[in-house]
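Just curious. Protein, please.
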Amino acid sequence: MSRLVKTMITSLVILLLGAVAALVVVLNVTGQSEEGNTQTIDDIVEYSYESPEITTDLEDGTFVRIQFQIVTDGKKAKEEIAKRDFQLKNILIKELATKSEEDFKSGLAELEQTVMTKLNELMTEGKITEVYTINKILQ
């Protein structure tokens, strides 16, 4: 074999080993950061805020009474969301006013996601990690 072919094969093997090593490093670093973000049940309870019950009308004239458990990523975020209670009520009233009884029955997960997204847009001291519906009554 010529010297050029040996050099080319050696270069390709070195590049391949470098790419495999980089892939292993990237996968391990990504996996560790995701594991670090999971909250224990104690953290969830400690950093969650229970919203007051809100009663409002839906688009079709029916009424709903609803309450949420809002999980934050830390103590400061929990304190901030408690202060932003009036903004939470405003978001809920606006969102619920566009829904009918049927939308409300089938779209709770969508409502929870919307509330979480809109609250995170307002937050400055952390973020909302989850929103759970803990009480719901349609009238």
User: Anything to note?
Assistant: Helices lie at 3-36, 41-46, 75-83, 85-96, 101-106, 108-122. The chain has six helices and four strands. Strands lie at 48-50, 54-57, 63-72, 128-138.
